[in-house]
């Protein structure tokens, strides 16, 4: 079985790594200043940091929002909706919402078939200890599998889009249908200020033109119950017509990864993951095996760069971590076999797909141009501070 790193040249640029974080020229359009500091760092210091307050200014801002959520929720069973994956960000957010803010959230979980044992344990420990209500949406597995297989067969990098799409769409569709005005999300600058570039398999999860094109070409069964939500439906219809508002509390309070892990562990016996996004076995496989070995991209560079910028990780420690795979070889091979079997492929078939000709989102229909226009408008009016490219 040939599952070694493929001999992929990701682009023609001479290799360069940022001297401040660990982003590098595997992002083909990355730019550096004369000191070798990259654009992600510049964006962080010039655009994010000056507007990011986790002191009393942040608290006073978020408490006003919380009071409004409470007032609007009077007489209702729940005043807000929180999507929970069992990962750190959403778990800590639930704790804050209930214990610190006194909110009455409904927790919403999507079971897409790939929960790790740790994530199931974590969700239950949070729900039981905080005595909150949990709604679980179970995705039709045949449709989930069909879309995931279609993405793998299309040879694009973004094979985690079906999961991202279903997590996102289920939550927003549920909010709109059940008249929730507020969705709290665990999105945050502290651990995510460096966004992975699109070419690292991080293209928009809600570009339905793209998703439908891939499914039309490689899918086998119609997606009749599969929850979807196009980016414009979410950004325009749900926000403006249904009035669904997204609140990101973690950006207004101190949120330090190691402290949050310790608190959740001590209070709820919550179990940490070795690495971000490992709550789903598929995502873990995608980020630690498929993407680095088939395409030559290591997303840990973005994750660790975020932590370096927010002073939660030392650059040398990050370089040491990325010098070897996150999981040992035996585990990686086991996971490869697990993924093949779960998707009804033989190991040989998945190996053949692994060795197939690599493509990217540009090879399929998409609406990137119009989305880019929308993002530029959002950045211009100050609603989006991260760099998308
Ligand atoms: Zn940098």
Helix/strand layout:
Elements: H1 39-48, H2 56-72, E1 80-83, H3 88-100, E2 105-111, H4 117-130, E3 133-138, H5 141-154, H6 161-177, E4 182-184, H7 189-192, H8 208-218, H9 231-241, E5 245-247, H10 257-268, H11 281-295, H12 300-309, H13 315-322, H14 329-342, H15 347-354, H16 368-380
Parallel strand pairs: 1-2, 1-4, 2-3, 4-5
Helix pairs in contact: 3-4, 3-10, 5-8, 11-14
The structure holds zinc ion.
Zinc ion binds at residues 18, 20-21, 23, 37-38, 40-41.
Describe the structure.
This protein is mainly α and 389 residues long. It has one domain (53-372): HUPs (Rossmann fold, 3-Layer(aba) Sandwich), CATH 3.40.50. The chain contains 16 helices and 5 strands. A 5-stranded parallel β-sheet has the order 3-2-1-4-5, with helices on both faces. β1 (80-83), α3 (88-100) and β2 (105-111) form a beta-alpha-beta unit. α3 (88-100) runs parallel beside α4, α5 packs across α8 (208-218) and α11 (281-295) crosses α14 (329-342). It is globular and about 60 Å long.
Give a short synopsis of this structure.
The chain has 16 helices and five strands. By secondary structure, the chain is mainly α.
Largest sheet: spatial strand order? 3-2-1-4-5
CATH superfamily: HUPs
In DSSP terms (H or I, runs of 4 or more residues), the helix count works out at 16
Rounded mean pLDDT score: 93
The top level CATH class name: Alpha Beta
* Overall number of strands: 5
What is the name of the CATH topology? Answer: Rossmann fold
- SSE arrangement, N to C: HHEHEHEHHEHHHEHHHHHHH
Q: Which spans of ≥5 residues are poorly predicted at pLDDT below 50? A: none
CATH architectural name: 3-Layer(aba) Sandwich
* Inertia-based shape: globular
- Compute the number of structural domains: 1
The helix content, as a percent range, equals 40-55%
The biggest beta sheet, please?
Answer: 5 strands, parallel
The ligands found in this model are: zinc ion
Strand content: 5-15%
Radius of gyration, in Å, reads: 21 Å
Structural class: mainly alpha
How far apart are the first and last residues' alpha carbons, in Å?
35 Å
């Amino acid at each position: 079985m040939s599952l070694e790193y493929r001999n992929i040249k990701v682009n023609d640029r001479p290799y360069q790594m940022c001297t401040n974080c660990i982003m590098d020229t595997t992002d083909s359009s990355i730019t550096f200043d004369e000191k070798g500091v990259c654009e992600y760092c510049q964006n962080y210091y010039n655009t994010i940091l000056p507007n990011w307050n986790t002191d009393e200014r942040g608290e006073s801002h978020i408490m006003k929002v919380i009071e409004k959520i409470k007032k609007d929720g009077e007489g209702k069973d729940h005043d807000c909706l929180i999507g929970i994956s069992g990962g750190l960000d959403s778990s800590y957010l639930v704790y804050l919402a209930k214990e610190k803010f006194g909110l009455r959230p409904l927790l919403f979980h999507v079971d897409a078939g790939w929960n790790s044992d740790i994530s199931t344990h974590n969700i239950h420990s949070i729900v039981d200890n905080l005595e909150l209500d949990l709604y679980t949406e179970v995705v039709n597995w045949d449709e989930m599998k069909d879309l995931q297989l279609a993405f793998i067969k299309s040879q694009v990098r973004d094979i985690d889009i079906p999961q991202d799409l279903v997590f996102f769409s289920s939550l927003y569709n549920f909010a709109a249908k059940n008249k929730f005005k507020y969705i709290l999300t665990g999105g945050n600058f502290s651990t995510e200020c460096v966004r992975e570039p699109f070419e690292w398999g991080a293209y928009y999860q809600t570009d339905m033109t793209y998703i439908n094109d891939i499914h039309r070409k490689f899918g086998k069964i119609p997606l009749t119950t599969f929850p979807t939500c196009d980016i414009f439906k979410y950004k325009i219809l749900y926000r403006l017509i249904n009035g669904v508002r997204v609140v990101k509390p973690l950006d207004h309070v101190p949120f330090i990864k190691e402290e949050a892990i310790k608190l959740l562990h001590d209070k709820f016996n919550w179990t940490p993951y070795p690495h971000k996004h490992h709550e789903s076995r598929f995502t873990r496989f995608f980020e630690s095996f498929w993407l680095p070995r088939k395409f030559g991209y290591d997303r840990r560079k973005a994750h660790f760069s975020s932590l370096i910028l927010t002073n939660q990780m030392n650059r040398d420690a990050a370089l040491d971590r990325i010098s070897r795979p996150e999981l040992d070889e035996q585990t990686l091979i086991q996971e490869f076999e697990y993924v093949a079997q779960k998707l009804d492929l033989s190991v040989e078939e998945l190996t053949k797909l692994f060795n197939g000709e690599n493509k990217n989102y540009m090879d399929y229909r998409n609406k990137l141009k119009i989305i880019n226009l929308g993002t530029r408008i959002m950045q211009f009016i100050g609603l989006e501070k991260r760099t998308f490219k």
